[in-house]
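User: Before I run my own analysis I want an independent prediction to cross-check against. Here's the chain; please return only the structure tokens and, at the end, one sentence I can use as a sanity check.
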Amino acid sequence: FEIMILVHVKAKSLLCYWAVRDLGIGMAQIARRLNLSLAGVSQSVKRGETIVQQKGYNLIDP
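Assistant: Structure tokens:
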């Protein structure tokens, strides 16, 4: 169960990070679509950035 939650959090963080940073979608729009608070999206973007930096993930292969 804990692993499922961790995977969900990482997936949401990556989604928010790539949507904001790479696709230019506003945090307010993401918050509405995912039914999250603006602060929650902001935290997810930061968490997603850390994951991307640590793992070297890319939305699109360079």
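Sanity check: The radius of gyration is 11 Å.
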